[in-house]
Design brief:
- The protein has 284 residues and is α/β, with parallel strands linked by helices.
- It contains twelve helices and eight strands.
- The strands form two sheets. Strands 3-2-1-4-5-8 form a six-stranded parallel beta sheet, with helices on both faces. Strands 6-7 form a two-stranded antiparallel ribbon.
- The longest helix is centred in the middle third of the chain and has 14 residues, at 105-118.
- The protein is globular and about 45 Å long.
Length: 284
């Protein structure tokens, strides 16, 4: 069992003392969250069975993607493939578990890893770690407050891996053979949502990569922020829609929020099947 960080937090949790245990078991949404998410999607469960809120529009107004991968220019970038997001043992499972399961995210990320390695494509991990000094921040956004309160991605220090194995900050076990193969690049950690504070962009540029296949967690936070930043830097970005997921809370469905923006902003929005097909075509 992963230990909750034992340092003192200077923040007062006036909204009910969010803690790791309650977030893991019930999530901030609780029972009401699922009902709220269904309401936000504008469909009852019976209606949703016949018409998914995530389905593409029958008559889209936006032009289709023209992105074509080119060998030597493309890399797979996976954001936060870590236990705290993707495992029932992770602290966010109470709010992201339904979405992770619904989109088969754990298996789909694995398929992307396999396809990228088979295509001899560079793979970059953009991880999320928090150290004791990060808990001294004097101001935070809503989700930053939650992440710090529940000890999400906590490690004892940037040079200290004590307790990392099997903890919420650790990579999912099913991905470790791909991540620790001696070829995958593990970037320095990002700290809020985007890659501005890590070296993922530098690593890609040094490989002369300017096309990114983007996957990981979570959809409307770190994945969307990575997409936006890399687009601003001049990369071509394809997001894999079923290799990401989002929290469902009374405030909204994070996956649906991200999906709308992916459609409007990304150079391409692919399923895992489509992404794998595009990667295989590089060796055709």
């Amino acid at each position: 069992m992963r230990k909750t960080c034992d340092h003192h937090h200077h923040h007062d949790n006036h909204d009910g003392d969010i803690n790791r245990r309650s977030f893991l078991t019930t999530g901030v949404a609780g029972v009401a969250g699922a009902a709220a998410a269904t309401s936000i999607l504008g469909a009852s469960k019976s209606e949703a069975a016949g018409m998914s809120a995530y389905a593409d529009p029958a008559e889209p107004a936006l032009p289709p993607s023209s992105m074509v991968l080119e060998k030597g220019r493309t890399a797979l970038l996976v954001v936060d493939p870590q236990i705290d997001f993707l495992s029932p043992q992770g602290v966010t499972w109470g709010v992201v578990g339904e979405s992770v399961t619904e989109h088969n995210v754990v298996e789909n990320i694995g398929r992307l890893f396999r396809a990228a390695k088979a295509a001899n494509m560079p793979v970059v991990i953009s991880p999320h770690y928090y150290y004791p000094h990060d808990h001294g921040w004097e101001f935070e956004g809503a989700l930053e407050k939650v992440m710090h309160s529940i000890g999400m991605f906590d490690r004892p220090g940037p040079l200290d891996v004590d307790g990392l194995e099997g903890s919420g900050a650790d990579f999912m076990a099913e991905y470790k053979d791909y991540i620790f193969d001696g070829k995958t690049i593990i970037a320095s950690p990002h700290k809020v949502y985007g890659p501005e504070q890590n070296d993922a962009g530098l690593q890609l540029r040094k490989l002369k990569v300017d096309q990114i296949i983007l996957a990981g967690m979570s959809a409307n936070l770190c994945v969307e922020s990575h997409m936006r930043e890399f687009l601003e830097q001049g990369f071509e970005v394809a997001v894999v829609r079923d290799a990401t997921a989002g929290a469902k809370v009374p405030e909204g469905d994070g996956y649906l929020a991200a999906l709308i923006n992916f459609r409007m902003i990304a150079n391409a929005l692919w399923s895992t099947d489509e992404a794998v097909e595009h990667m295989r075509a590089l060796d055709a």
